[in-house]
Design a protein that fits this description.
The protein is of the alpha/beta class and 430 residues long. The chain is built from 16 helices and 19 strands.
Length: 430
């Protein structure tokens, strides 16, 4: 069944993918035996279950669950205990059904929302690709409204986003590289649908991850969309020094016989940020070699434990954030595949003051330009250190904490700023 496409309005008109409602078992794209296995395991886990409760947990239409339950009854795997009202019944597994369910659990331990066929998931990525996104300066101004980002950075980041290809954000620590990267997805328009899980050759891969995916209401959608899919914000998956090569492959649990999707699958149609690049526990060259084909061909290849290869569209914006110079990390050949190298520079004095003002307004601390000029003279013009975008926030927080301790209203004074700087900048270099 072809996907439905919903027209939305905004700055520019777009098409939004909406998974179509399955009116029959055939339209789920799954074999009837697979659905019977899922429903029987669901009942086995709770012992007694109403048909509508099973439908709610499996995200299948009630009428399809009824059909499956009738088959399980005929096979003497479940029996009706009581009437649940509203043309519903309470079911429980028979002894034969319990034996069958345990055998199914030996195959895999999956219970929950019914998976979506692999091919339908792949089709959805093509419909929801970020390459259909087009951001404007205004979009980025809104996305970055809570942080200090100058015009030159906006003018550099915008084209990189619209290219749909990778970018390096580099520069001194504390200037907002990570903050900028994490907010890029705010400039993307609309939301996307992803499946809770997918099925491929009888194997189940969990895709939805509440840690990395933020679900949003689908209340404005017709009720007849496929609830095996969840509507989410475009994802922003962030990994740092903990990144290993294994995290880029399908994770198979030999106990549950289930797969966990790798980070690039979870970030599809959104953004994948490799933070603090160059400081991972693995050789960064090995990590970069893993990205060459996806960046060049916009496809990735994953392998099931059975040996079967899966081709997956590589449909996210890949961002590397680093305090190091990219040329010191990678060779020219790889740098060509990351066409945008953007230096997030330290703030000018005027920008530094503006950040101070904004954070004071946000925290309710009266802004004192004379005190800020004193801070700049004593800590920066003297050559002690260079300005960073994070310093105003961190120094103001130190002042607030000190004043809270002293039980006095927070204010910017030379005394309080000296105390804050003595504590904050201790053991820090330039």
């Amino acid at each position: 069944m072809p996907p439905q496409v919903k027209t939305t309005t905004g700055f520019q008109q777009q098409q939004e993918f909406v998974p179509p409602y399955p009116n029959s078992i055939a339209e789920t794209g799954l074999k009837e035996g697979f659905l019977e296995e899922l429903v029987l395991k669901d009942i086995y886990m709770v012992n007694f279950a109403l048909g509508r409760e099973i439908a709610s947990r499996t995200m299948l239409p009630f009428k399809l669950v009824e059909e499956i339950l009738e088959v399980l009854k005929k096979q003497l795997l479940v029996e009706v205990k009581t009437s649940g009202g509203l043309a519903d019944y309470e079911y429980t597994p028979t002894e034969k059904g319990r034996d069958r369910a345990r055998a199914y659990f030996d195959h895999n331990a999956y219970v929950g929302p019914c998976p979506v066929p692999w091919n339908r998931y792949i089709d959805s990525l093509k419909y929801q690709t970020i390459r259909r996104e087009s951001v404007t300066p205004r979009d980025l101004e809104v996305a970055f409204s809570d942080i200090m980002v100058n015009r030159r950075t906006i003018n550099s980041v915008g084209p990189a986003i619209n290219s749909g290809r990778g970018m390096f954000l580099f520069g001194e620590p504390g200037n907002g590289k990570t903050s900028i990267a994490e907010r890029i997805v705010r400039s993307f328009k609309g939301h996307i649908f992803i499946p809770y899980a997918v099925e491929c050759d009888g194997q189940i891969i969990r895709v939805f991850d509440s840690h990395n995916h933020e679900s949003v209401s689908a209340a404005n959608y017709p009720r007849d969309y496929d609830h095996r899919w969840v509507r989410i914000q475009r994802p922003c998956v962030v990994v740092g020094g903990e990144l290993t090569i294994d995290m880029l492959e399908l994770q198979f649990d030999y106990g549950t016989k289930l797969y966990e999707a790798p980070i690039q699958l979870k970030s599809n149609c959104g953004l994948l940020l490799i933070d603090d690049f160059g400081r991972q526990r693995i050789d960064h060259k090995s990590l970069l070699n893993r990205w060459i084909v996806p960046l060049e061909k916009r496809v990735d290849y994953l392998t099931l434990h059975t040996g079967k290869k899966l081709e997956v569209p590589f449909e996210q914006l890949l961002v590397f954030s680093t305090n190091l110079n990219p040329s010191d990390l990678v060779d020219e050949a790889f740098l060509r595949r990351i066409p945008y190298k953007i230096n997030i520079a330290s703030p000018t004095e005027d920008e530094f003051k503006w950040i101070f003002l904004q954070y004071c307004q946000r925290t309710g601390v009266p802004y004192n330009e004379e005190a800020v000029n004193y801070l700049i003279d004593s800590q920066y013009r003297s050559g002690k250190r260079s300005m960073r975008c994070c310093h105003p926030r961190d120094v103001v927080d130190q002042v607030i904490n000190l004043c809270t301790f002293l039980q006095t209203d927070p204010r910017l004074s030379r005394e309080y700023l000296d105390h804050a700087c003595a504590v904050y900048f201790a053991a820090m270099g330039k």
